[in-house]
């Protein structure tokens, strides 16, 4: 088991954002979490990362309890987060951004990791001396994913990677997710509003509503489920 | 999909006239009570008199001024546009060229600053002012670590300057420590105050951080004013020993069994010797600071500071310990401020809380911001300007601060990112990027 959350609660001040979350991610899986705005998707990602800390429950990663581990320590244990809204370092160059991804990694791997990321995203190699803030939204998303991969994570968290991107880049993002999982065996936990595409790439999925998991199943099951169709697919963006 | 584009087109002459007319009209309305009417003393009673002639002149001036300003702005914009269209160089090349220019200017400035006391060896005023400039350059470089690199807005930086100055003053007057012994200790003390300030404000950002640092600066000053037994209160500490040149004092007559600087080198005694020595001392301290900070910027810790400035959440996601990054920025910034403080105390020979008011913090911050956040050369330029403008302004007596303020406003209007806003990457890619641009340049 790569990751389990057992009965996790989390608060933002007085707001009870997560109310007893139980999810699990197995090694080599793509797991998708879908839900409406404000359902607690990003909170779930962030509490996994220790910010905010879970107020109750247990988070186990790779056999170790990380519920009380400091945020920066969690990243060092092999979880990489591609945050919502990309959050690249705009005034630093592309290559500097990638370097920041290795803040805690072994410097010996740096050259190989950079080459690997450039092979996956050739556009980043072309723009490596450019300030990251001058990249297009899609390129910035590639950079954010590349930066996360620099630390050789065991588990990759993607928070709304398709948000605000042009359709061509949305396709590209989901293609990358597939490739990472299939060719590199990367375990991925994906949070998305784009339920249709996200469930298609997923082995399993969860539906989050008002801080609680209301549905769980394989990607195909959820895609076929009438509740999911009604709430997230039909009438919404598909 | 269509994007709305607000093209800022140049105005036609008719538009300019109308625009100026409106400004003159507003001026007229404001001017009637402010200028047009005035109170006079009429046999013990208050009477009202009109000054419509003056008002008319005022309105005419507003009209003409606005017209000229509009014309000037449009003219500048057209020229800039024409230049941009004419030049085919890429942005990267321009940045590269700008960086080279800055480097050349830097070396010239270094040469000039070394030659300055030799050229002006009998001009006390010039050497003194240059020393003040260098103190501010050093303070600016110190604060640049905190504000420019790490992006933590610190309005109480002067507190660390004060800690450094008072540490040296007390260590030397109470315990007889020399300048060189006290320097590292005072720096360490200032750094620990930096950490002390850093802890409670780790979770704060932006405005809130600024307010707390402002309070911290005031706390230190208020303590210095009120704790009379410790710091001498408002009277300050006087007769602080001056630094010696490897044990040689800058006095007219040597102390028992010692030699003076002038005596040792067989020179006639001159008060200028000490000033010039102090000048070179701060020059060396400032240069060391520069080398130190430039090195740090290329190390992981320096890059972490910059990443923190850019995005704190992303830093955490990268597994960076933001607590340590922030504290190290505060500590190193504070230490450099402390060094500058030690020098300040040694140079003045007298310190009091008067020297460490909020205005000082504001000026140091202004140096960093006007220079272009994070730019080392920008700090030098801004420090020079901000010290020299009030000096040149002495002839204008009470208008000097007005001049100072106007200069700051103009710089910010003209260069919103600071005088030197270009950021030099910490990684130079020789293989492709530089070679390609060189090739283009040769063509």
Question: Can you describe this structure?
Answer:
- The complex is a heterodimer of chains A (238) and B (443).
- Chain A has a domain at 90-151.
- Chain A contains 10 helices and 10 strands.
- Chain A has helices at 41-48, 71-76, 94-100, 110-120, 122-126, 137-149, 167-184, 195-201, 219-224, 226-233; strands spanning 3-12, 15-25, 30-35, 56-61, 64-65, 79-82, 155-159, 187-192, 204-209, 212-218.
- In chain A, the strands form 2 sheets. Chain A has a 6-stranded mixed sheet, sandwiched between helices. Chain A has a 4-stranded antiparallel sheet with strand order 2-1-4-5, with helices on one face.
- Chain A is globular.
- The two termini of chain A are 32 Å apart.
- Chain B is mainly alpha-helical.
- Chain B has 2 domains: 13-41 and 48-74, no CATH class; 102-414, ABC transporter involved in vitamin B12 uptake, BtuC.
- Chain B has a two-stranded antiparallel sheet.
- In chain B, a hairpin with a 2-residue loop joins β1 and β2.
- The longest helix of chain B is centred in the first third of the chain and has 35 residues, at 52-86.
- The radius of gyration of chain B is 27 Å and the shape is globular.
- Chain B starts with 12 loop residues before the first helix and ends with a helix.
- Chain A binds chain B through residues 49, 51, 70-76, 80-83, 87-93, 95-96, 99-101, 103-104, 128-131, 147-148, 151, and chain B through 92, 300, 303-304, 306-307, 309-311, 313-322, 423, 425-427, 429, 433.
Summarize the structure.
The complex is a heterodimer of chains A (238) and B (443). Chain A has 238 residues and is of the alpha/beta class.
């Amino acid at each position: 088991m790569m990751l389990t959350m057992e009965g996790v609660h989390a608060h933002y001040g007085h707001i009870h954002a997560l109310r007893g979350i139980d999810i699990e991610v197995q090694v080599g899986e793509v797991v998708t979490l879908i839900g409406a705005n404000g359902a607690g998707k990003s909170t779930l990602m962030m509490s996994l990362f220790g910010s905010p800390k879970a107020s109750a429950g247990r988070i186990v990663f790779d056999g170790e309890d990380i519920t009380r581990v400091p945020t920066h320590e969690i990243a060092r244990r092999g979880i990489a987060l591609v945050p919502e809204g990309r959050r690249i370092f705009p005034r630093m160059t592309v290559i500097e951004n990638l370097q920041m991804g290795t803040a805690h990694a072994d410097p010996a791997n740096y050259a190989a990791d950079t080459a690997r990321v450039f092979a996956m995203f050739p556009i980043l190699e072309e723009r490596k001396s450019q300030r990251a803030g001058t990249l297009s939204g899609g390129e910035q998303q590639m950079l954010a994913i590349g930066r996360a991969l620099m630390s050789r994570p065991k588990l990759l968290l993607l928070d709304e990677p398709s948000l605000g991107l042009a359709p061509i880049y949305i396709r590209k993002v989901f293609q990358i997710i597939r490739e990472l999982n299939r060719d590199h065996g990367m375990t991925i936990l994906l949070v998305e509003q784009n339920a249709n595409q996200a469930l298609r790439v997923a082995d399993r999925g969860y539906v989050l509503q008002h801080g609680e998991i209301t549905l769980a199943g394989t990607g195909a099951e959820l895609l076929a489920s009438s509740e999911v169709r009604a709430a997230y697919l039909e009438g919404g963006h598909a | 999909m269509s994007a709305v584009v607000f093209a800022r087109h140049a105005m036609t002459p008719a538009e300019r006239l109308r625009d100026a007319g409106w400004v003159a009209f507003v001026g007229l309305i404001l001017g009637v009570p402010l200028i047009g009417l005035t109170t006079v003393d009429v046999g013990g009673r208050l009477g009202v008199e009109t000054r419509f002639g003056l008002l008319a002149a005022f309105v005419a001036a507003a009209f003409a001024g606005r017209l000229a300003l509009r014309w000037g702005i449009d003219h500048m914009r057209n020229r800039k546009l024409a230049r941009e269209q004419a030049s085919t160089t890429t942005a990267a090349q321009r940045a590269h060229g700008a960086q080279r220019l800055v480097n050349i200017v830097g070396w010239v400035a270094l040469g000039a600053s070394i030659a300055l006391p030799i050229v002006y060896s009998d001009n006390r005023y010039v050497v003194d002012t240059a020393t003040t400039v260098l103190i501010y350059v050093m303070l600016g470089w110190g604060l640049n670590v905190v504000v420019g690199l790490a992006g933590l807005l610190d309005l109480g930086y002067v507190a660390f300057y004060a800690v450094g100055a008072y540490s040296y003053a007390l260590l030397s007057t109470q315990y007889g420590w020399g300048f060189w012994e006290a320097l590292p200790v005072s720096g360490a003390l200032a750094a620990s105050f930096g950490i002390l300030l850093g802890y409670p404000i780790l979770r704060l950002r932006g405005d809130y951080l600024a307010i707390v640092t402002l309070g911290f600066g005031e706390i230190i000053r208020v303590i210095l004013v009120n704790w009379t037994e410790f710091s001498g209160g408002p009277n300050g500490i006087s007769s602080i020993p001056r630094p010696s040149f490897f044990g040689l004092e800058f006095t007219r007559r040597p102390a028992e069994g010692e030699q003076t600087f002038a005596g040792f080198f067989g020179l006639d005694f001159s008060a200028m010797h000490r000033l010039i020595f102090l000048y070179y001392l701060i020059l060396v301290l400032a240069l060391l600071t520069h080398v130190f900070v430039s090195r740090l910027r290329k190390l992981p810790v320096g890059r972490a500071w910059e990443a923190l400035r850019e995005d704190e959440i992303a830093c955490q996601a990268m597994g960076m310990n933001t607590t340590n990054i922030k504290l190290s920025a505060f500590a190193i910034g504070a230490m450099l401020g402390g060094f500058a403080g030690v020098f300040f105390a040694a140079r003045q020979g007298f310190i009091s809380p008067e020297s460490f008011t909020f205005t000082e913090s504001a000026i140091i911050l202004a140096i960093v911001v006007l220079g272009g956040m994070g730019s080392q050369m920008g700090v030098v330029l801004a420090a020079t300007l901000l010290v020299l403008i009030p000096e040149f302004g002495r002839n204008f007596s009470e208008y000097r601060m007005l001049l100072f303020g106007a200069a700051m406003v103009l710089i910010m209007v003209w260069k919103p990112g600071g005088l030197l806003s270009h950021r030099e990457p910490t990684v130079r890619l020789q293989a492709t990027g530089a070679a390609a641009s060189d090739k283009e340049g040769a063509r």
